[in-house]
Amino acid sequence: MLTAVLSLTGAFVFGAADFLGGLAAKRIGAVLSTAVAALAGVAALTVLTPLVGGVWSPADLWWGAAAGAVGAIAIGLLYACLAIGPMSILSPLTAVVSAIVPMVWGLARGDVLGPLAPWALGLALVAVVLVGFVPEKGAVRPSLAGIAMGIGSGTAIGAFFIIIDQTSDESGLAPLLVNSVVTAVVMFAVAGGLALRARSKRERMPRADAEPVDAAARGRARGIRLALAGGVVNAAANTLLLLGIRAGDLAVAAVLGAMYPAGTILLAAIVLKERIAPVQWAGLVLALAAAAMLALS
Fold first, then answer.
1. What are phi and psi of 56, to 5 degrees?
2. Which residue, 24, 16, 9, is CA-closest to 261?
3. Which residue, among 40, 36, 34, 29, has the nearest Cα to 224 in the 3D structure?
4. Least confident of 1-5, 92-96, 115-119
5. At what angle do helices 30-52 and 58-84 cross, to 10 degrees?
6. Angle formed by the axes of helices 117-131 and 87-108, nearest 10°
7. What is the phi/psi pair of residue 5, to 5°?
8. Is the pLDDT of residue 211 over 50?
9. Taking the model in full, what pTM does it have?
């Protein structure tokens, strides 16, 4: 029960973080928004880690660093696909993939599927088809690029769960702190490289007349604020999910943690007024039902 409560709570919080990250990526790009969010996560976890306590063993720190490298890929792709949108479609896609990856890992280690698992996997595949099928004019339509990045992000999120599960219970939040530091370093390095490349291109191009930059500056400032908020929320979500993993089984925690699209969908519908076709709503319901069945199997 504790695993279910922590994982589901973490999932809803993670959904809110994804929503904020997707909005930030639209304004400042997926790479910079991921880097800024990771930096905010470092600040938040620097405060939380001493309060929780724990032993900083080398093995746990290495696992945290590995999780950070994978997490940089996962969150970067996630923010990028959510920026493309629609959030309400691509978020569930990543969730289904992120739930299946830890299950496959468990099977490879010799775990036995429960009686509901085959049905859940079948429902997940049907859900993926339904959410990508748009029969009505004006309904939101995911792009191939968005779908590809969503699958890649889901795979990396599942790998993150597997890696962070290798840490000991005695390590507290230290692995998450190292994870955030590594993610921030990697993404700021990538952002710096992209910025230098863009500057080099501008220098080679003919100068154009200066344009007002107030609107662009305000957009960047808002994007950075959204990324900072998303990073703090994401740190809280990761803390809850890590505690959920340590309280019970990885597969259950990961699958229940994959319920995060509920928070993203709700916020996208309320704030962005995204329109979703009835058949797509059916697909979303099936995706969430599949996640619940996986947790129970």
1. -90, 75
2. 16
3. 36
4. 1-5
5. 140
6. 150
7. -65, -50
8. no
9. 0.75
